[in-house]
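Chapter review: from sequence to fold.
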Amino acid sequence: MNRIEALAAALAVEIEALPLAEKVEALNAARRALHAVSPFRSEPVDLVTWVPNDTVVANEYNSNKVASPEMALLHRSIKEDGYTQPIVTFPAGDTSIVVDGFHRHRVGKEKADVRERVHGYLPVVGIDKPIAERMASTIRHNRARGKHQVDLMSEMVVKLVNLGQSDQAIARQLGLSADELIRLKAQTGLAALFANQPFSRSWVAIDGEAAPADDTIEMDA
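The token string follows.
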């Protein structure tokens, strides 16, 4: 073990012995100290800190909305996979104003299972920009992510079809309605995805799972 590893191990022992609130403060302080000498300190993601969820507040300009099914899917994603993306915020005194990640912040506040798991904290990164630039940043995040999500979902549909998954199974796994799956298939431009595929335009819930309704149709290339 070299000197840096020994120092890190000793620091970890010290932090582990602290009560929760002090432990979080110590971890954030250590991250800030490392961030100050990091060659990546110009990148916000180089410094992710955990802050009490009641100090993270919504901005007043974001019109981005998430429908109930998408919100439920986001909750499930965070529940199953954890927080894989921090909430982008603007530091304003003792509060952090959301620039991007409003719905991730809602899940951490409103969903008891997630809130308890993260001890009432939320992971944030900060960007220090004027209001006009923060508004533009919010729009960029939303639009870029929207296009990326559609493209990524289409690619996933192609892969699942090639693996022999049924339309019902794909829709269930990706949280899609019948019409959404049709549109994603059409976007790929690959007619083969529609060849001889039985498809239902609606599903009914059976014990929490999606099951095909009776109006199954055949889609030919």
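Two observations follow directly from the output. The CA atoms of residues 159 and 165 lie 9 Å apart. The chain has three domains: 1-38, 48-128, 147-219.
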